[in-house]
Structures are given as C-alpha cells and as structure tokens.
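Supplementary notes for students who missed Thursday's class. We covered one full example, reproduced here. Read the sequence, then the structure, then the short commentary at the end.
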Amino acid sequence: MAKAIRMHATGGPDVLRWEDHDPVPPGEGEARVRHDAVGLNFIDVYHRTGVYALPLPVTPGLEGAGVVEAVGPGVTEVAAGDRVAYAGQPPGAYAEVRNIPAHRLVKLPPEITTRQAAGMMLKGMTARYLLRGCYPVTFGTTVLLHAAAGGVGSIVSQWAKHLGAMVIGTVGSTEKAERARAHGCDHVIRYDQEDFVARAKEITLGKGVDVVYDSVGQATFLKSLDCLRPMGTMVSFGQSSGKIAPLDIGILSAKGSLFLTRPTIMTYTAKREALLAHANDLFEVVRSGVVKIDITRTYPLAETAQAHRDLEARRTTGSVVLLPG
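Structure (token representation):
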C-alpha cells in the first residue's frame, strides 16, 4: 500500500497526516508517476493554512519528479519508464505515487537528476517568468530581490547576474547574506539592521531600481514601491509575511507612474508550449552551470509536518526536498 500526506482540515502543520493512499489506474489523459523526490514550497503553506483554499480532503504539494509507471488512454506526451518532473496545479505531489494530467509533465534531460528537478521546477520556472515575462531583465537592469537566500531568490540572483543585471538582495541574517553573495548578489542589505529603501537609493545614486521582486508581501510591499525608479515595475509574487492590504492604485501614480503585477506560475505555464519553453530554458541554465541548484536539506516525506515548521520559522535556505520511502 502506497502512502501520502493527506489534509482533512486547514491549520497548523499537524493537519498533515501520513496515510494509506493508492491511486486508481490512470484515466484518460493521465499518467501514474512514482516519485523519487518532492519539492517543498511556501505556496504549500498557503494551501495548508487555507490562505489559498483547496477542496478537502486533499493531498497537497505542487512539485515532484520521478518515473512514469503507466499511462491512461490518449496519452502521447510521455510513456512508461520516462523520467519526468512537474510544477503547478493540480496538487497531489506529497505522495509516493500519484496520477497527474500527462500534459503537465516534462521529460528530464539525462544531466538533471530527479532530486535536482524536485528542488528546482517550481522555483526555477518562477524565476524564468520573473526575469523574462514580468520584466525583461537584460544587461544593465537594476534588480531589488527580497528573500535573496531563499529557493526562488537563489535561482533568480544567479540567472539575473548571468543576464548582466546588477542584483541587490535583502536578507535577515549573516548566514543568508553570505549565501546571497555567493549566488551573485552585487549588494546585500540586512533588512534587520538597515533601511532597505535608503540603502537601495544609495546604491543606485538616488535613481531607484528598475524592478522589485517581492515574495515577502505585507512587511515589504509599500516600502518596495519607494525603491523603484519612475515607471519601474513592482512584481509581487508571494506573501510569506502576510496578506497585502487593499491598495488605492493612485499610489502608483503618486510614486512615479509605477507598474504593478501579481503573477502566478499557473498562468505563465498554462499552455503546454509555454510550460515546455519555461522548462527548457531552466534546463539549459542548469546544464550549462549558469544556475546551480542548491538543495540544502532533505526530509522523509512522512515528516513533511516538520519541514513545514522549519520553513515557516525561516530555518531553511535554498531548495528543500521531501523523499518518499
């Protein structure tokens, strides 16, 4: 009997239960995947707490990698025996075995391990749409990146540096500052020790940055707007510190005709051709060594509740992977 993490209610980490879970044979358009590794992401916390509601009961998790065991009728994208990975809806990754729509799967190149893939698909494809979709980062772009030592931040900083950007990262500890510098940040701001707005303005000689990438939310949102140059772009793609309050959009004109976007990976990879473009660009920068995937910690899948506790307490950096079996 296979196992999975199941949620019957929203709440703290204790709602994540390790239960028997054997999926039925894959249906029309589905593939059955046996996971080698599962990715841990902050959006999983939003699902667990009900910030982003899922129908209950549910197996959460949006990222995994493994081997296709079987396919249902009509599947052409993958075949039994293929090494595959995925990121995004539908949930169900916190399982030893799962069924998933085959069109959401991408085949892994030989150079990418399943453990690497589980630690990079959601974060890396997020980095791709941030850098190439939300704002076209090129040589000379000035970027302010919050949570620069985190899973997405570590990838964005490396990739943006490769594109020729100047990267300013914010972090909350000495250890995280060292990690941010190691991953390409030209300047690192300790937000617990100095005003990141004043420091960003100092670094840019008063001009402001071209784009802010903010996954922190409530604690940083309004001050991030003050870091932007006129007609700069604010990309709010998470809310780890809490939900952002309703906004009077007049503030965007008052602060310099700013642009604001709230993207999701589900939108940017909704079409299969877009999914493959994001995945292939990610595979290329990883294979070439431009981006190194830093899996800093693993947990048994059965201990996912503890992984959530550590993630919420900011005791993790880089990518964290859950291991079945």
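Commentary. The first strand starts at residue 3 and ends at 6. The chain has a mean pLDDT of 96. If anything here is unclear, bring it to office hours.
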